[in-house]
Amino acid sequence: MANDTLLSGENAAYLEDLLARFQADPASVDAASRALLADMDGVAPTGPTVTPRSIFHAASSGAAPSEGSDLRAAERQAKVARLINAYRVHGHWAADIDPLDGRHIARHPELDPAFYGLTDADMDVTVSTSPLHGLPPHATVRTILTRLQQVYCGSVGVEFMNILDANAKRWVQQRFENLALAEPVGRDTQVRMLDMLTRADGFERFLGVKFQGYKRFSLEGAESLIPLLDRLLDEAGTRGVKEVVLGMAHRGRLNVLLNILHKPPQDMLGEFVDHTEHSDVNGSGDVKYHLGYSSDYTTARGDVIHLSLAFNPSHLEAVNPVVEGRARAKQDRDGDEAGDRVMPLLVHGDAAFAGQGLNAEVLNLSGLPGYRTGGTVHVVVNNQVGFTTSPHDARSTPYCTDVARMLGIPIFHVNGEDPETVARVVALAMEWRQVFKRDVVIDLYCFRKHGHNEQDEPAFTQPLMYRRIGAHAGVREMYRRKLVASGVITDADANRMSDAFRQSLDEALAQAAAPRAKSGSALQGLWAGYGDPAFVAETAVPAARLSELLRALNRVPDGFSVHPKLARNVFKLREEQAAGQKPLDWAAGELLAYATIAAEGARVRLSGQDCKRGTFSHRHAVLFDTDNGNEWSPVAHATEGQARVEVYNSLLSEAAVLGFEYGYSLDYPDSLVLWEAQFGDFANGAQIIIDNFLVSGETKWNRHSGLVMLLPHGYEGQGPEHSSARIERFLQMAAQENIQCANCTTPAQIFHLLRRQVLRRARRPLIVFTPKSLLRSATSSLDDLANGRFQEVIGDGEGRSRVVLCSGKVYYDLVAARAAAGRESAVALVRVEQTYPFPLAALRDELAKHPGAELVWCQEEPRNMGPWPFVALELLEAGLPARYAGRAAAASPATGFPGRHKREHEELLAAAIG
Ligand SMILES: Cc1ncc(C[n+]2csc(CCOP(=O)(O)OP(=O)(O)O)c2C)c(N)n1
Ligand SMILES: [Mg+2]
Predict the structure, then answer these.
(1) How far is the CA of 390 from the centre of ligand 2 (A)?
(2) Is 668:252 a contact under the CB 8 Å cutoff?
């Protein structure tokens, strides 16, 4: 046997692989190859004896055996194996997935048998079908090729060969190769799918006729989305899913609201008829194609699934993390740790999926302990255009879904004009999600019948595409013809179907003008009772209880090795704090807030970059065993029977993580949910979430949130991106009591503030500008936590001739500067601990103690930043004009030069005190 020849050229990799498998387990290799490999390996073959002659017989019956033909047979077998592999990897390139047939992808050369040197003469030779599943052990090369084309190049193209988990990869392979995608669809399902298509198509036509000139972001061209979702819910129901959280953008949203969420058609049409403030929202409201809804969906098989469609802003993909957070909250509440019963479902546009980085961030959350939701089903409504932009201008990769390849999950590209294949793909995707608990992507290839909205002329920008689109009858019509031709239904049945639907819309339209009853407050269910406008709560905790909890924060399991530095410093300090010998530091105030909240039964969830330890090493909410790296969180085990305290380090993202925590807060009002930025400066990476959900969600959608943002802030000479959480931005967006902004100067204040956030019966986002250097230097006594509550303003004596107002850490610098200048009797330093809602009444009370005093506002931030632009106006309008002492207006928040920082700092203190 000429092994040298065999192991050269194109065969080498295949044969090496085969040999390795043979060496590991001879039985894993088909009988025909075993003898060859035994010969190459110098090992006697096991199992049934196979001689070169028998290989030959297996390979081509009848011809005279010879050494040369043995070799050719083995080579042919290797070529076939490579061909099989090529179809698994590249078959999707040749799949018939595009209804417009406009894919500019040349046929992949590796799918051509000639690429491997397989000739026409080889096609009728019988070979082993291994490793292809689903065929008898031997078949002709032609049979294998035909089967590969059927499996991998039909109406669905699958990408799965990049899945690293061998089991998961084999699962997809076997499903495809055993023709799961060719199983017949039952008659009932066929009729139901036609009905869904009829509704999808009928609703758009109806709106097009009755409300010409209105934006509706029609689903036409992608009507298969409706049967797709119907099938998905049906499959989900049979696999135990009870609840689905759905996020989607504008395209087809009205159609989904009607046909999947079953929003009453008279209400939907009413929103077209009536342009007054008709929604259930008390504030500014939102356009109709952003509104959320929830309802129970009864599937074809009779399962009931609760559906929640999340409210979303125009910003594409921004709702994704919110949906994930909502799903996780529901899972946590339900004890559904694996995500068996609650499932997130995201419907994307093709351009947005490829273009928005947030999408990649959210995909990246999917496997992480703090954020996983048991797999999200992603459906891309791939109409092959984004507004006026074609794919070649919209992405650098062939598929719009390529970013999802990083997850090692199956990506199904399916032709939206083949509803039955869509249904089978959906079944497979749903099974994958439930078995592997990982994301899955269905890329629904379709088109957009009109322009971006119905007024746009698409032929201005996509003339050729729209010529092709014009020739399409529409998927409903094509499917109707198919079912009529195959005798599943008659023309009359189909007409009855569309007439009945049309009639229901006519009736709904007749009622649409009638005034509709408001559906009541959004504060229902979990949110019942959270509308208390009196934002007060008793937050003090007896000192003895606090001492007990401080000691509990030092408790670790037997045998857990605490880092010696922590034992020496932190643990010792806590012991002294518990005994009342040392004042409390920031960590004590913060951790005691969590421990007491959890002891009182409310869940605490904190996530962000490095927040287990804390960016500034102050928190140590999670400890790491120095011997084995095991984690232990004392605050999560401080009291018997306490609620959960979870602290998660996040991936290095702001937008996805903040969005996730915001979503979590929507479905877990009875908990404390916090997101911490590494430095507050980085929070602007989540600006969309802040602008479009956090500060405006209540007025747009009547959706409340008690989310806390912890944003380290303070000018300590660390440069332009480690100084400012952009207080000015939050205050600029503060109105109608939408948020709360605080900057605490003591551990007792953060303790009371965080407890207030949970204990009072109302929820508003809380933005806390947290300190850095104060984490170690600011102190409170146990009594400060055992008495009183959060002070929005902290006064300072009486009868001084100047009152310097300030907020945050600069207070301590002012105290030192005042002492150095010997001006204690002349200058009062009054702290505004809460800047929004602006505590004018409390401030007036303090100012009244210093009649006739000059009023100064001092801040570290430049004049155009920090609280000043906001506070100046508030004070002015209150008849309390103040002088400004702070940095000059600046384009960048802080200098990068330490010397300059120090000089500016001294100047602003002097301006305030001197
Ligand atoms: C983040 C963001 N940037 C820009 C826009 C403006 N915009 C609205 S729709 C659209 C095109 C969306 O294309 P695609 O995702 O393919 O969805 P389609 O409308 O085709 O369904 C754009 C750019 C937006 N809504 N959100
Ligand atoms: Mg598109």
Answers:
(1) 9
(2) no
Relative to the CA of 349, which ligand 1 atom is closest? 15
Query: Is the pLDDT score of 110 beyond 90?
Result: yes
Which one, of 373, 251, 260, 376, lies nearest residue 307 by Cα?
260
The residues, ordered by sequence, that sit 6+ positions from 288 with a Cβ below 8 Å of its Cβ are 254, 268, 271, 272
Q: What is the pLDDT of residue 273?
A: 84
β-pairing, 740-742 vs 766-770, is parallel
Check pocket membership of 352 for ligand 1, CB cut-off 6 A.
yes
* Cβ within 8 Å of residue 74, ≥6 positions away: 6, 33, 36, 55
CB within 8 A of 87, min separation 6: which ones?
111, 148, 149, 151, 152, 153
Burial of 749 (0-12, 13-18, 19+ CB in 10 A): buried
Element (H, E) at 18: helix 11-24
The residue-averaged pLDDT of 13-29 equals: 63
- Which pLDDT score, from 0 to 100, does residue 37 have? 56
Q: Whose CA is nearest to atom 17 of ligand 1?
A: 349
* Distance from C-alpha of 549 to C-alpha of 526, rounded to nearest angstrom: 30
The tokens describing 829, both together, are: 């330093």
Give CA–CA dist 701/681, Å, rounded.
28
Ligand 1 lined by 314 (C-beta under 6 Å):
yes
More confident residue, 537 or 562: 562
Six-digit token string for 631: 């984690």
Q: Residue 192 in contact with residue 465, Cβ under 8 Å?
A: no
What are the beta bridge partners of residue 830? 805
Q: pLDDT tens for residues 474-511?
A: 999 999 999 999 999 999 999 999 999 999 999 999 99
Residue nearest to atom 1 of ligand 1 (CA): 315
Mutate to test the pocket of ligand 1, among 251, 316, 317, 399 (most ligand atoms within 8 A of CB): 316
Per-residue model confidence as pLDDT tens digits over 772-822:
999 999 999 999 999 999 999 999 999 999 999 999 999 999 999 999 999
513 pLDDT band, cuts 50/70/90, is confident
354 vs 352: CA distance, rounded Å: 5
> What tokens appear for 65 in the block?
């055996």
Q: Is 219 in the pocket of ligand 1 (CB under 6 A)?
A: no
CA 244 to CA 259: how far, in whole Å? Answer: 16
Q: Which residues fall within 8 angstroms of residue 59, CB to CB, at 6 or more apart?
A: 32, 73, 76, 77, 125, 126, 127
Please tell me the distance from the alpha carbon of residue 255 to that of residue 288, in angstroms, as a whole number. 12
Contacts of 28 (CB under 8 A, 6+ apart): 21, 22
Please tell me whether the peptide bond between 837 and the residue prior to it is cis, using omega within 30 degrees of 0. yes
Sequence-separated (6 or more) residues with CB below 8 Å from residue 741: 727, 730, 731, 734, 767, 768, 769, 834, 835, 836
Give the integer Cα–Cα distance in Å for 42 and 648: 55
586 CA from centroid of ligand 2 (Å) = 50
Which helix (H) or strand (E) segment holds residue 297: the answer is: strand 293-298
Amino acid at 102: G
Confidence of residue 562 (pLDDT cuts 50, 70, 90): very high
The position carrying tokens 């590494």 is: 678
Tens of pLDDT, residues 162-213:
999 999 999 999 999 999 989 999 999 999 999 999 999 999 999 999 999 8
Rounded mean pLDDT, 717-736:
97
| Ligand 1 center–CA 254 separation, angstroms | 16
Q: What is the mean pLDDT of residues 321-350?
A: 98
Give the tens place of pLDDT for each residue, 383-412.
Answer: 999 999 999 999 999 999 999 999 999 999
Centre of ligand 2 from the C-alpha of residue 312, in Å: 18
Q: Where are the beta strands (DSSP E) in 73-179?
A: 126-128, 138-140, 156-159
